[in-house]
Inverse folding.
C-alpha cells in the first residue's frame, strides 16, 4: 500500500492544528503508520528541502521549518500521495480552495501549515529521512473492509 510523508509545520503546531489535521486524514480512511513531535536539525531541514537550495526563499524556509517543533507523520492508503496533496490545497494558501488544509488555515506561502510529499520518489526519500524502521508501525485496521 502507498505511503506518504506528512508534516504539520511549526506554525500549525503553535496554532493547535495538529489534532484537526490528523483527524482529516483519519476520517478520510487513511492509516497512520508513524508519528512524532520533533525539532528538525538544520542539516535535516536542508536535506529535506534540497530541491529548493537555489531558490531565493531557501534560507527563510530552513529558518522557519527549524523554528519550533513539527509533527511528522507517515500515512498509508490507496493513492495517499496525490490525495493528501489535494487535501492540503495549493502551496500558496491564498490560492488554496476552502475545505483544504491550507485553504482553511493559511494566509501566506511562507506559513502554509503543512507539508506533504509530491510524488512516490519524494515520499520514499522523505519517509526515510525522518523515520527509522522501528518508528514505522505495521498493523491491520479492523475497519479496512468498510473503506476498501
Ligand atoms: P509544497 O510545500 O506545496 O510542496 P514547494 O515544494 O514548491 O511547495 O515549496 C516548499 C515550501 O517552500 C512551501 O511549502 C512554502 C515555501 N515556498 C514555496 N514557494 C515560495 C515562495 N515563492 N516564497 C516563499 N516561500 C515559498
Ligand atoms: Mg514540495
Amino acid at each position: 500500500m502507498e505511503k506518504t510523508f506528512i508534516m504539520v509545520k511549526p506554525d500549525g503546531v503553535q496554532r493547535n492544528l495538529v489534532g484537526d489535521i490528523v483527524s482529516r486524514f483519519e476520517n478520510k480512511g487513511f492509516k497512520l503508520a508513524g508519528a512524532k513531535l520533533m525539532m528538525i536539525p538544520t542539516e535535516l531541514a536542508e536535506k529535506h528541502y534540497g530541491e529548493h537550495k537555489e531558490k531565493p526563499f531557501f534560507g527563510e524556509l530552513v529558518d522557519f521549518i527549524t523554528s519550533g517543533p513539527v509533527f511528522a507523520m507517515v500515512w498509508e492508503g490507496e493513492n495517499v500521495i496525490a490525495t493528501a496533496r489535494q487535501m492540503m490545497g495549493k502551496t500558496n494558501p491564498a490560492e488554496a480552495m476552502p475545505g483544504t488544509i491550507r485553504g482553511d488555515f493559511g494566509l501566506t506561502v511562507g506559513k502554509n501549515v503543512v507539508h506533504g510529499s509530491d510524488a512516490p520518489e519524494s515520499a520514499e526519500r522523505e519517509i526515510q529521512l525522518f523515520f527509522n524502521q522501528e518508528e514505522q508501525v505495521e498493523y491491520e485496521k479492523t475497519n479496512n473492509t468498510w473503506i476498501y
In short: Residues 3-138 form a domain with the Alpha-Beta Plaits fold (CATH 3.30.70.141). The beta strands are 3-8, 31-38, 70-76, 114-116.
